[in-house]
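Q: My hope is that you can spare some time for a protein that puzzles me. Underneath my words sits a plain record pairing an amino acid chain with its backbone structure tokens. Those tokens are not coordinates but codes from a learned vocabulary of shapes. Thank you; the sequence and its tokens follow:
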Amino acid sequence: MSRTIQAVVFDFDGLIVDTETPEYLAWQTVYGQQGWTFPLASWLRNVGRNDRPFDPLGRFREADSPMRPEEAEAAWDEHHALLEERYLTPLPGVVRLLADLRRHDFRCAVASSSRLTRVRHLLEVLGLGDRFDAVACGDEVPHAKPAPDVYRLAAGRLGVAPAACVALEDSEPGVRAAKAAGMRCMAVPSPLTRGMDFSAADGIVDSLLGVTIAGLTGPGGRTEARR
């Protein structure tokens, strides 16, 4: 069945900017200072979600922990602040793709599991605050990804039916959320998420450098966006 793609909805963390690597590396450092290994597989359970099924402070609540949870959190904050500065730049392909979409009059939105104030602040820091027609975030909806709530909210704010949107996602929960919302979805795995199951996606590319308008609209779509 043919349909017209009118909008592109971007995930934020790990897709527009790599916020996930500094978060992971900061926890890895804090754990390593205690002689522990930070479990990447457990951490990946949090990626793409805001309900945080894995609590990295849980180990510090155990009786044999040499550090209290609040001390561990403070140490993480310190390491993360130093690391984050190195990563606060749009990921390869983001700026070019947004410019291409604007030239072809596609509407664009962000659908993130993160807090609205955080996402809006980081978009401004990245110089992308005016590139999106709408922003929808995890603290605005009842259910986190992989539930479809945040994608439905983004589509509503764009004034575009979910079936006329294509999503870009770097995580399995995000892909599942977009598909549950009724959108097509292209997976763009990050270095941390490459081992996730992206079988539900309509396509997979290595980075946004490999994303084109023709690829987003795909078979049955077309490159004329709603004006």
